[in-house]
């Protein structure tokens, strides 16, 4: 498999267990997965890792994932990146525009389908 074909998933969540679960869910897909616990250096992480998709929690310590999502979607350097926002919070009034949302606890099959659909739709970009 060529490295150019390997899709990269960036997990932004302050719960390390979520990182481990998502890595297990996608291990058979051979995705390159990176997890960060703090969104403070997110722009640098994105620039270095070059993810194909971002899985972003709403509550990340002192950071609000909705605000981060808005910044990503309004920045020309990151606006193209699909973002899946997830949280145990009610997500009726998000005040941001992620590509998709997933409520915690999440269904494994649902997560896999949403990630694959966004990665496949991004091939045309």
From TrEMBL:
The keyword Transferase does not apply. Residues 8-119 form the Response regulatory domain. SMART domains: REC (SM00448). Keywords: Phosphoprotein. Pfam families: Response_reg. The modification 4-aspartylphosphate is found at residue 57. The keyword Heme does not apply. InterPro entries: Bact_response_regulator, CheY-like_superfamily, Sig_transdc_resp-reg_receiver. One of its GO terms (biological process) is phosphorelay signal transduction system. This is Response regulator receiver domain-containing protein. It comes from Pedobacter alluvionis.
């Amino acid at each position: 498999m060529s490295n150019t074909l390997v899709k990269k998933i960036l997990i932004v969540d302050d719960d390390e267990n979520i990182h481990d679960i998502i890595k297990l869910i996608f291990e058979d897909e051979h995705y390159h997965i990176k997890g960060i616990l703090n969104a403070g250096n997110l722009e640098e992480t994105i620039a270095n890792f070059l993810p194909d998709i971002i899985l972003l929690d709403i509550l990340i310590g002192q950071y609000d994932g909705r605000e981060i999502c808005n910044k990503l979607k309004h920045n020309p350097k990151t606006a193209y990146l699909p973002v899946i926002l997830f949280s145990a919070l009610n997500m009726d009034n998000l005040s941001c525009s992620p590509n998709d949302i997933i409520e915690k606890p999440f269904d494994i099959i649902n997560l896999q389908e949403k990630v694959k659909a966004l990665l496949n739709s991004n091939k045309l970009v």
